[in-house]
Amino acid sequence: MSKGKEIKTLLRDVVAANSNLPIQAEVTSLEDDTCSVVLASGLELNDVRLKASIGGDDDYFIQRPKIGSKVMLLSITGSLDDLMVLKADEIENFEFSSNGLKILIDSEDGKVKIGNGQTNLKKIFQMNVDLLKEFKVFTPSGPSGTPLPDVLLKINLFEMEFKKLLK
Hints:
Blueprint: H1 3-14, E1 23-30, E2 34-39, E3 44-49, E4 60-65, E5 70-75, E6 83-88, E7 91-98, E8 101-106, E9 111-115, H2 121-134, E10 138-139, E11 142-143, H3 149-165
Antiparallel strand pairs: 1-2, 1-5, 2-3, 4-7, 5-6, 7-8, 8-9, 10-11
């Protein structure tokens, strides 16, 4: 081995650099935090990671590519059985979880879910709608009735609108 190659090898070992190049593939199926892909050569690969590590960790960020979209893969070890998606052309959804906060942005149904271990945004809005539909105040002649039809219509429109956006 020449001195130049030997120095390169030693430097690569010192900084733990791996000269793997990204691999382009097409997504054929999605699982929870993995996907299956097919390479340009026709080779099909399963269990390609969508996050850096697979496991029960509650803190993560996942971008799930659409089936049929192109992705760039990389292997930390250089082996085809240790691939991870680096970049995707088309995204089905994003999911973020950290310290109990969970956010899902889903382009398939055009909805968002925001919550934590105790509640979520859709539940809070629904509680507000339910309260407004039954809202009563004390008057000199006793408790008021439920909202008038025009107010109830607006409450129902509010409910329909937030359900179009929130999961």
